Fold each of these.
Amino acid sequence: MRKLVIAGLAAAAFAVAPVAEAQVTVNGSGSWSSVSDATNDGTPFWDNSSHDGASCNIGFILLGTASGCGNAYGDGSAVFGAGSSGLEHWAGAMGTTTPFTFSSNQTLKITIHGGFAADDGSVGTFDGSGFTTAMIGKNNAPMVFTVSSSDFLGFFISNSTLANGCGSNTACSDADGAMLQQHSLFRVGDTYYIGMEDRNFGEGNDNDFNDVIMQVTATPEPISMALLGTGLAGMGGANALRRRRRKS
C-alpha cells in the first residue's frame, strides 16, 4: 500500500509541475519610462533618423510602426511581438544613455536578431568570469542561446570601428558615458530587448540602435523534483517513527 501511495504522490507532483518564479533585475542608475511613439528628434538618445529608412530606429521596430527598412526586421512586430502596448525604455535623466547589467535567479534565453553593417562584428555577454562571444558576422542571425550567471550579466558589441570602451574596439552595456555606450534597453512585461549600435555614438552616425537586437527572457525552472524529494523524505521519517513506536 505504501508503494501505491508514494507512486500516487509522485504522479501528483509531476502533474502539478510547479516552477520557480523567473525574475530579471536590471542594475544601474537609470529608470523606466513608457514609449508611445518614435519621432527621430534625438530624445531619448536612441530616437534618431536611421540610414535604413526614415522610420527604422529601434523605437519604430519595437513599436511595430517601422516601414521600408533596409534590414531584416520588416515592421518589427512580426519578429518581436512587442507592439505598442506596454513598451518601456531604460535611460538616464532627460533620456540620456546610462549603464546597465542584469541579475537573474534563472537561466536566460537570448535570441539575437539582425546583423552588422560590417562583417567583422561580434556580440555576446560578460560577467565576473570574463567575456563569451555568441555571434560573429552579420549572416548568423537569428540565433538562440542560453546563459546563466551567479553574479551579474552584461552585454557587448565589438567591431573594428568602435572606440576602446571595455576592451579593444569593444563597447559594453555597463559603460558610463555616451561615447562608449552602444546599447539601448527596452522591455514589454518580462521580455527585454537590447538594441545595439555598431558605429560610435555621437560621431555623425545614424545612432539608430537597430543593428543587432537581443531578445531576453528568463526561463522558469521546474521545482517538482525538489518538492517530491521533500515529501518522500517526510514520509520516510514518519514511517521510521511508527516502526520505533511499535517496537517500544
Note: The chain has one domain: 30-93+103-219.
Amino acid sequence: MISIDNLENILFNLIQDNLLYFTIIISAIIGKLKESSKSNIFTAWIMYLIGTLFHELAHLLVSIITYGKPTWFSIFPSKQKNEMNETVGYTLGYVSSNNLRWYNVFLVAMAPLLLLPLSYWIYLHFFDYCDKSIITIVSYIFIIISLLFSSIPSGTDFKLVFNVKSIQNLIVPVIIMFLLFYFDFSINSILKFI
C-alpha cells in the first residue's frame, strides 16, 4: 500500500523531473483561469493581484526615481466605461504622476519591463531560500509566470509613450540604446553585477 509520504515523493520526483512540462501545464491553467475571471471584477482582482501589484510598483518606483512626482497608487480594480456609460472592461490598478515629461515618460511607462530581470533572478535563486516541495515548486512557477505576464506594458502604458509628442518621448530610449551598443553591454555583463 502506498503511504501519503510515498505518494508525495512520487509526485515531487515527477514534477521535478518534468519541470518544463509542468510549467507549461500550470501556465495553461493560470492563463485559462485569468481568462475566465475577467467576467467578474472580484475574481479578476484575485487572479491578477500579484502581477498587478508588481506592475504598478514598477511604475511607482521608476516615477519616484525619475522625478515623475507620483500622486496616487492603486491596485483596486475599477470599471472602464465608454461614452454610453456601458462597462467595457476593468482597470486593475494604476499610478498617477504629475510630472511626466520627455525625459521620464518612456521610463515610467515601460517600467514593468523591469520585472523581466526580477523574474530571471527568481528563476535562478528561488530555491536558494527555500526547500523544494510540491507547494514551493508550484509557487515558484506561479510567481515567475505572474511576473512574466505582468512585465508586459499595458495599452495605456504604450499610449503614454506613443502620443502626439511621440518623437520627443523617444529621445530617452534612443539614448539608452546608443549607450548600450557603445559600451557593449550584454545581459551577462549586467547580470554579473546582480
Note: The two ends are 49 Å apart (CA to CA).
Amino acid sequence: MIFPAHRIGKWVVSDRCRLQNGGNFQHETSAGARRERAMTDKQFALFDTAIGDCGIVWGAHGIVAVQLPMSGDDKTRLRIRQRYGDIAEAPPPPDVQHAIDGMIELLEGKPVDLSDIALDMADVPEFHRNVYAIARTIAPGDTLTYGDIAKRLGGVELSRDVGQALGRNPCPIVVPCHRVLAAAGKPGGFSANGGVSTKLKMLAIEGAKVNYTPSLFD
C-alpha cells in the first residue's frame, strides 16, 4: 500500500512515519488508521442452529458480535458487513468454535453455561456492559425483568435504559437478552429478525415460563 509522503530535508517521509532525534524513523498510526486496522482484524463465520443460521464476529480480544438469523444466509452476511465493514469469512479458531458449539447446544435445549466465553466489549458503553453482565448471570430456563436489572443498577426508574441497552446487545445468545422480560412476565420487545416470535421460541427451547397470550395479529 502506498501512503502520501512529504520531504524533510533530504528525507522523503511517509505520513505513516515520523522523524525522531538522531534521524531514526518511528512508525506512527493515525486514529483513523487504527480504526481501519481494528475493523480488518475482525473475521466472521456462519453456523447452523435450531433457530436458523447465525453469525459470529471475532477479533484479537474476543467475540465482538453474534448475529441472529436473517431470512437467508446472504442477508445474514450482508447485515454483518453492514455493521463491521467488508470483513472476511473464515474458519473459526478454537476459542470461537467453543462458543459456537455452546450456542448450538443451548439452542438444542441443553442447559449450557456460556459465561466463560470471552467478549470484546471495548466499544460498548459502561452502563450497557453492566446490564449485559447481569444478563449473563441468568441461567437457561430462568428470567429477570427489566425492572429487576434496573434495581440492581440503581433504581427501577432505569428500566427504560435497561431495555434500550438490551436492544443494542451485540452478542445475543451469549448475552441472553431473550431472558429479560417486561413486567408481570410479559415478553416485552426483541430487536432481532422475527421480533417477539424469535424471543418466545428461544425461551420455549429453554423451558422458560412467559405470560403471553397471542393476539389475532401474531
Note: Helices lie at 31-40, 73-84, 94-106, 126-135, 146-153, 159-167, 196-206.
